[in-house]
Design brief:
By secondary structure, the chain is an all-beta fold. It contains no helices and 24 strands. The strands form 6 sheets. The chain has a 5-stranded mixed β-sheet, with no helix packed on it. The chain has a 4-stranded antiparallel β-sheet with strand order 5-6-7-9, with no helix packed on it. A 4-stranded antiparallel β-sheet has the order 10-11-12-13, with no helix packed on it.
Length: 257
């Protein structure tokens, strides 16, 4: 099946309530999961990815977040409205959005100045630090985000926080991730961590870390993750994509660890 995409440079894929949201550099395309029929799309040049929560569809750009309400059909470009910028009432630390995720009514946003957690619109808590590459994930009352070397994991905060409030996972730590270069993060039941050297799966309850370099094949730079909601280190499925840095790579399904 050939999908009708605005652009084949796909940044992220999200699923919610029977719909698949494909974010590319040209915006978002929305499909029914049952037949992959495209039902809506929105054009937004320079889109870096996005997220979906109870409040709608969110698109990340270098100049802020854009919001698309649920329920639109057809071409929805006119429905896009800039919401969070440096001049807003609940400002992000920077309008330069590098990555984001969403869950329920909450948003997790990584910018050039740090990480912003919004449990609801109008309320924001911050981690201030330049150099976060953009990968982040929110789910089950926990957040995770990549830092310059490794990643931070913590319960959803109720105040501004620092690195000392987080569990820090690095290649030199114990347990150790495969690489300090974290490319992608996604929650199933456990946290799936795509790195430049393979895939890790972290159980935050047991504080245990599984390392997966096979069946990823010879290309271990994991850039994209899409785990099933209940996926863990010992069961469930996770789709992944890798890159060799030269336009090649692979796509696969990890059935279990």
């Amino acid at each position: 099946m050939d999908l009708q995409l605005q652009n084949n440079q796909v940044k992220q894929i999200r699923e919610r309530a029977g719909l698949i949201y494909v974010f590319s550099v040209s915006g978002v395309d929305i499909y029914r999961r049952k037949d992959w029929q495209r039902i809506a799309w929105a054009v937004l040049a320079g889109c870096r990815g996005g997220a979906v929560n109870d409040l709608g569809v969110w698109l990340a750009t270098a100049y802020g977040l854009w919001h698309l309400p649920h329920g639109v059909t057809g071409a929805a470009s006119s429905r896009l409205a800039l919401t969070y910028t440096d001049a807003s009432a609940t400002a992000l630390q920077s309008a330069d959005v590098l990555g984001m995720d969403a869950d329920g009514s909450a948003l997790l946003v990584v910018t050039a100045a740090g990480v912003d957690y919004l449990p609801i619109l109008g309320e924001v808590y911050r981690y201030t630090a330049a150099g976060c590459p953009g990968a982040c994930a929110i789910g089950g009352g926990r957040i995770a985000y990549a830092v310059a070397a490794g990643l931070h994991l913590l319960d959803a905060p109720a105040a501004d926080w620092t690195a000392g409030d987080a569990t820090v996972l690095t290649a030199a730590g114990s347990p150790a991730i495969l690489s300090d270069t974290v490319r992608a993060l996604a929650w199933g039941t456990d946290l799936f961590i795509g790195t430049a050297a393979g895939l890790n799966i972290y159980d935050p309850v047991a504080e245990a870390l599984a390392a997966i370099t096979s069946p990823l094949g010879s290309v271990l730079d994991v850039r994209t993750l899409w785990p099933a909601p209940a996926a863990t280190a010992t069961g469930g499925r996770c789709a992944f994509g890798t890159s060799d840095g030269a336009g090649g790579g692979q796509f696969g399904i990890l059935a279990s660890a």
